[in-house]
Design goal:
By secondary structure, this protein is an alpha+beta fold. Helices cover 30% and strands 24% of the residues. Strand 1 (43-51) and strand 2 form a beta hairpin. The two termini are 30 Å apart.
């Protein structure tokens, strides 16, 4: 799907299946969230990095979103 979108110069968003490499690349954003976190408030942080899956012919931009619920509250 992304190849067709790129061929036709169409912007797209695709959810990637989580894997160990993506978790490693997201660690700096998690660290930033934990440093800035207020326990009583829900926290959300976004970041981006380049990633190339084994089956891809090039790097692509990945947007990461990390959520941390307020302590004692369900994650909504």
């Amino acid at each position: 799907m992304y190849l067709i979108a790129e061929e036709h110069n169409i912007s797209y968003t695709i959810r990637l299946k989580a894997n160990a490499k993506l978790y490693d690349l997201a660690k700096p954003f998690l660290k930033k969230l934990n440093q800035n976190s207020e326990i009583s408030k829900k926290q959300v942080i976004y970041g981006e990095f380049n990633y190339q899956a084994g089956s891809w012919d090039k790097n692509r931009k990945v947007i990461v979103k990390i959520e941390k619920p307020a302590e004692g509250c369900p994650n909504k």
